[in-house]
Specification:
Elements lengths: L2 H7 L10 H21 L3 E5 L5 H8 L3 E6 L2 H9 L7 E5 L13 E6 L9 H13 L1 E13 H11 L3 H6 L19 E2 L1 H11 L2 E7 L8 H6 L2 H14 L11 E7 L3
Parallel strand pairs: 1-2, 1-4, 2-3, 4-5, 5-6
Antiparallel strand pairs: 5-8, 7-8
Helix pairs in contact: 2-10, 5-8
Length: about 260
């Protein structure tokens, strides 16, 4: 069993996006998926790294023809357990680095909402993104999620008291970029790292979005909000999530790419 399987076998991944603060990321991501589907003019969706199916199932129940690929068997079992048989949704166990099961230009929108969290070399990230672009139709969209470096420094190292641990493990560069490796589970990036990867595959960026913004910094406050106040928070967040001066401070970002015709 690898580090990723061990992590997800011991985590309630299905609950991550259902907390009040987690819903900010989910609401934001769904908004941009819907926009891209409308622009692409189709409903065929591939989600690579589908986890327990939070996005795939919602999109399938909204009428999309969804193909879900997931690495971890336990996540696949949870995903399948939630299906009621009415969804147009196919589920495969697979790897973001090899989408050879799917022909070129098969999907209107391809989602990579988890794989980049767990790929630790530039070569692997480039391969995963290249595969996603390959299977996407010309004029279609690829949406890629990333975990960002600075929130980890602020929240884990300073707010959470983990600074000594990361120093002892030599997990910081001189300019405070986290050194990620498989046993740490998550790969952490900065906006310039994402831009470098996009340039390497020749992808056209449409938008880079802060999917949760300040939600994780304020999670206790958000989780205690009444629903009316929370709706106002989401309204504020959606009004500011494309501001590039705020992107790097978000725990998660969404890179929206278009495959040129």
């Amino acid at each position: 069993m690898n580090y990723i399987e061990e992590y997800y076998n011991n985590r309630d991944e299905d609950a991550r996006l259902t907390s009040r603060h987690g819903r900010v990321e989910f609401i934001t991501t769904v908004k941009y998926i819907r926009e891209c589907l409308a622009l692409a003019g189709g409903d065929k969706v591939l989600e690579v790294g589908a986890g327990t199916g939070r996005y795939s199932i919602k999109l399938a129940r909204e009428g999309c023809a969804v193909t879900a690929v997931e690495l971890v068997p336990r996540n696949i079992d949870v995903l399948k357990s939630k299906l009621d048989g009415t969804e147009t949704l196919e589920v495969y166990q697979g790897n973001a680095l090899d989408l050879s099961a799917f022909p070129d230009e098969s999907f209107d929108v391809t989602l990579l909402l988890g794989p980049m969290y767990h790929l630790y070399t530039f070569g692997d990230k480039k391969l995963a993104l290249s595969e996603a672009l390959r299977v996407t139709k010309k004029g279609g969209y690829v949406l890629v999620a990333y975990c960002m470096n600075e929130p980890t420094i602020i929240q884990y190292c300073f707010m959470g008291g983990g600074l000594g641990d990361v120093i002892d493990k030599d997990l910081l560069t001189e300019d405070w970029h986290c050194k990620s490796e498989p046993k740490e589970v998550f790969e952490l990036v900065r906006t310039e790292d994402i831009a470098e990867l996009d340039a390497a595959v020749g992808a056209e960026r449409i938008k880079l979005v802060a999917t949760d913004g300040a939600a994780h910094y304020l999670k206790e406050l958000l989780d205690k909000m009444d629903e009316a106040t929370f709706e106002k928070w989401v309204e504020y967040h959606l009004a500011t999530c494309e501001r590039q001066d705020l992107i790097g401070a978000s725990n998660h970002t969404l890179d929206i790419l278009r495959k040129n015709k």
